[in-house]
Amino acid sequence: MMLNLKRRPDTKDVISLLRRIRYPGYDADIVSLGVVEEVSLPEPNSVAISLRHGGTSDERINRVVDEIKTLCAKTLKVSKVEVAIHRLEPELGERTGQVALEGVRHVIAVASGKGGVGKSTVAANLAVALRRLNYEVGLLDADIYGPSVPMMFGLTQARLKAGQDSRLRAVEQHGVSLMSIGFFLTERAPVIWRGPLVMSAVRQFLKDTIWGEKDFLIVDLPPGTGDAQLTLAQQVCLDGAIVVTTPQDVALLDARRALRMLKQVHCPILGVVENMSYFVCPECGAVDELFGHGGGERMAQSENLKLLARLPIYSEIRETGDQGTPIAALLPDHPAAQAFLQLARDVAQQVLEVGELSNKP
């Protein structure tokens, strides 16, 4: 992008400029990876930029800072470039945050690069499928702006309030303990919050909810690479993340960004789930790959990850979700429910390889 230097640059100009800078070791720019936290122009002829840093080494981030200062001074013709580094955690360690949730053995995040790929459907049915395998399961809806768990579990009228001890009681449905901002809102109320409030809400749901004794807590993250994801990485020790995508290239592009953000904050990646992989004709049984073929598998191979599942398109998946009962609970013998059950087995096997819960089925 050519910047018009006859006028004072605005924040959009600065962000466009920052997209030219690749993060060392990654084939992606620092904006797409979520490294750029905030951009401002506090006074004429100056630029202030805040960067998120979740790594244990300063070498890469220092290289980024030097490149930012050089590029801004040369292209924007500003005399003052201030770059602040927001460290996500003094010691993130090898597995993100080092604080375990009370009573929760394993925390698994379900992420996606963009909306509309069925991430929440995967998270809801994964939680139910794990419960069918006799694990104790919780599901946290961390999508503050677009909570869908209440609808998927038939709880749109449920409302929660904090108790006298300020702890939150999770709602039980289909054997899964649930928490969502949707339990505090009317059905049509929008959430109009800035980043700090989103981070505070996710933090409270994680730490102040009485989850009980749980083998797994599934966290349904919002799409993209924002505050909720970083808060989760800071606050608790994640045992792994699942990246959900659909086969087409535009979804894969955003999925890679989410994947790289998770890697940057040292979150182990359990694998890739390719959702809406194919449609099976109910009349003749013919398979039609509506959104292309093999995109999730190619991404998994290129990132040296496991393709956990290729989930089919069935109208029953949407219908059961809209009706308030995930297909894994309502129609357990349906091919889609069986696919989610196999996904749950694979996820559990990966997480439990250390043998902590190997006595469970």
3D architecture notes:
This protein is of the alpha/beta class and 361 residues long. The chain folds into two domains: 77 residues, 2-Layer Sandwich (GMP Synthetase, Chain A, domain 3); 250 residues, P-loop containing nucleotide triphosphate hydrolases (Rossmann fold, 3-Layer(aba) Sandwich), CATH 3.40.50.300. It contains eleven helices and 15 strands. The strands form four sheets. It has an eight-stranded mixed β-sheet, with helices on both faces. The chain has a three-stranded mixed β-sheet with strand order 1-2-3, covered by helices on one side. It has a two-stranded parallel sheet with strand order 6-9. α3 crosses α11 and α5 runs parallel beside α6. The N and C termini lie far apart (56 Å). The C terminus is likely disordered.
List keywords for this structure.
single chain; 361 residues; alpha/beta; GMP Synthetase, Chain A, domain 3; Rossmann fold; 8-stranded mixed beta sheet; 3-stranded mixed beta sheet; 11 helices; globular; disordered C terminus
Q: Give me the secondary-structure category.
A: alpha/beta
Q: Main sheet: which strands, in order across?
A: 7-8-5-10-4-11-12-15
Biggest sheet record: 8 strands, mixed
The ordered string of helix (H) and strand (E) elements is: HEEHEEHEHEEEHEEHEHEEEHEHHH
Q: Which fold name corresponds to the CATH topology of the largest domain? A: Rossmann fold
CATH superfamily grouping of the largest domain? P-loop containing nucleotide triphosphate hydrolases
What's the tally of helices?
11
CA-CA gap between termini: 56 Å
Assembly category: single chain
Cα-atom Rg, whole angstroms?
22 Å
Mean pLDDT: 79
The CATH architecture designation of the largest domain is: 3-Layer(aba) Sandwich
Please tell me the total number of domains.
Answer: 2
Number of strands: 15
Beta content? 15-25%
